[in-house]
Amino acid sequence: MTETPHPLYARHADTLTRALTAITERGYWSAYPESPSPRVYGETAAAEGKAAFEAYLNGDFPLDQPGSGDRVATEASPFGLELNVRYPHAAADELVAAASAALPAWRAAGPQGRAGVCLEILARLHGHVFELANAVQFTSGQAFVMAFQAGGAHALDRALEAIAYAYAEMTRHPGTAGWEKAVGKGDPLRMTKTFHVVPRGVALVIGCNTFPTWNSYPGLFASLVTGNPVIVKPHPLAVLPLAITVRYAREVLAEAGFDPNLVLLAPEAPGEKLATTLALHPAVKVVDFTGSTEYGEWLEANARQASVFTEKAGLNTVVIDSTDDFAGMCRNLGFTLTLYSGQMCTTSQNLLIPRAGIDTDQGHRSFDEVVAGIAAAVGKLTADPARGVELTGAIVNDSVLERLDEVARVGETVLESRTVEHPAFPGAVVRTPTIVKLTADDTATYSREWFGPISFAIATDSTAHSLEIMRATVGEKGALTAGVYSTDEAVLDAAEAVAIDVGVHLSCNLTGGVFVNQSAAFSDFHGSGANPAANAALTDGAYVANRFRVVQSRRHA
User: Fold this and answer.
1) Would you call 3 helix, strand, or coil by DSSP?
2) What DSSP assignment string belongs to 35-90?
3) Sorting pLDDT into bands at 50, 70 and 90, what band is 4?
4) 220, exposed or middle or buried, with CB in 10 Å at 0-12, 13-18, 19+?
5) Residue 524 and residue 507: Cα distance in Å, rounded?
6) Which of 154, 313, 391, 483 counts the highest number of beta carbons within 10 A?
7) Whether the Cβ atoms of residue 547 and residue 306 lie closer than 8 Å to each other
8) Of 24, 92, 110, 473, whose CA–CA distance to 284 is shortest?
9) Which residue has the higher pLDDT, 285 or 186?
């Protein structure tokens, strides 16, 4: 049986081909420009996107999908902006039934047809990237440029990367094959074999508050392109970015002749626990989740009927041994700790420094001088509120504020967190990072995750001791990133050996414009699946291959 490509596949074949090349080369490539400059997107794009975002506020979100007719509104902006967007509500069974009914025709579309439609969805979302960025900004607390990049362009890159990996896995074998076996003097045995890519079933994406698109798009598009209808369950405080995503996905699906219920939004009412109900539904066969360790582990243990992909919490660690660019190291780490107020799953928490200090290009620096240098870099970035808030953004939820209050009572505070008034949004909740000194014996404190603008400078006996702590804490609790600073190749090799053993991605001697908490699509893997912080990587073959099966049929030729 020969697959007839959908016209949308032909439209986007060049993009897919380039993405397939990129995932094998692992060099720099991006399909979606990350600069929101008018020179890139046109003079009117920013204003039109902002107006489109504002049109959603204090109204019913325009989404026609199965449901009771009830509406839910649960979002509260970290910037103090009143959102009050009301979303259509549906019960779990209604959503699953609608998604299941849409599956057969989507399965029959084949890998090329599905890839073409998914790439058209990305193109449609890219056309609304400013609208999407505003929604990410005002629900997550990210500053606008970061929301545009991470929540818009980079999220689309991660989606395209997932589509490329999935397409490669679905097409690594032929759709049909002739089989012939000689059997003595008689005619050979001849068979025609057909290999069908069969989706697992309904997929569920459980979104997070901090990166509602960046963390959700890989699973959403990996599942959709492999034939699985997708129910998108946003975090109650960050619904709008995924509602916009679902809106345009459904629009493209309908235009392409498919049931728009292949992508459904599942906002939940307060206390409803809709994610849990959906995750345990017998028809739900794939679950993607980003969030707390506790809930991620619960999903892994209880959603037994599904293939579950989780990104959870971890203890991101930096080992500081020595440096030939002390100022650059401090600037780089200062930026890492300041960006989005440390509210990134990749931000460094534990800075392991020998108590005797380190050798640098500026001479020997004591432990206190190293910590002071990093703190000064953070202070410089946040000193001017107008400039600082464009890096820190706003605090995403009350749990972060509670941790800031708690950490003030442990260790020795080197850099206090400050309350900052946002020049443009007086209602914004803004806090600068804090750095707290600990000893290596304060294990109970630094061996738990303190998500937010909180970092610990931990005095160790030696670099070897630092590596032991990294091995123990990351091995037990996991991490998504690790860093090391050293002028000694033996130390770098030892750090890499530990990173390999505990399955964490390592960055060495970052002093310029690359930061440990940033991850580039098509080149960097995000998460490894090799430690407790995540059971999968974004993105590799293992991330996509378990979302479908191959079923064959045989006939005599």
Assistant:
1) coil
2) ---HHHH-TTHHHHHHHHHHHHTTSB-----SS-S-EE-----TT------BEE--
3) low
4) buried
5) 11
6) 483
7) no
8) 92
9) 285
Digit-coded pLDDT (tens) for 450-490: 999 999 999 999 999 999 999 999 999 999 999 999 999 99
Cα separation, 278 vs 287, in Å, equals: 9
Tell me which residue of 26, 15, 25 sits closest to 519, measured CA to CA. Answer: 26
pLDDT of residue 1: 41
d(CA 185, CA 50): 76
Q: Over the range 520-543, which residues count as b (16 or more CB within 10 Å of their CB) and which as e?
A: bbbeeebbbbbbbbbbbbbbbeeb
**245 phi and psi angles, rounded to 5 deg:** -60, -50
Buried b (16+ CB within 10 A) or exposed e, 363-395: eebebeebbbbbbebbbebbeebeebbbbbbbb
What pLDDT score does 68 carry? 79
The two three-digit tokens of residue 180, written as one number: 């012939």
Token digits of residue 121: 């969805």
Task: Provide the pLDDT for residue 65.
Answer: 94
For the stretch 441-445, contacts whose Cβ atoms lie closer than 8 Å and that sit 24 or more positions apart, written own/partner, are 442/410, 442/411, 445/410, 445/411
Residues near 63 by beta carbon (within 8 Å), at least 6 away in sequence: 87, 88, 243, 246, 247, 250, 265
Tell me whether residue 409 is exposed, middle or buried, using C-beta atoms within 10 angstroms of its C-beta: 0 to 12, 13 to 18, 19 or more: exposed
Whether 470 and 304 have beta carbons less than 8 Å apart is answered as no
- Tens of pLDDT along 352-393? 999 999 999 999 999 999 999 999 999 999 999 999 999 999
Kindly report whether the peptide bond that precedes residue 323 is cis, defined as omega within 30 degrees of 0: no
3-state secondary structure of 289: strand
Whole-model pTM: value is 0.96
- Amino acid occupying residue 438: L
Residue environment code for 68-95, b if the CB has 16+ CB neighbours within 10 A, otherwise e: eeeebbbbbbbbebebebbbbbbbbebb
pLDDT tens for each residue of 107-165: 999 999 999 999 999 999 999 999 999 999 999 999 999 999 999 999 999 999 999 99
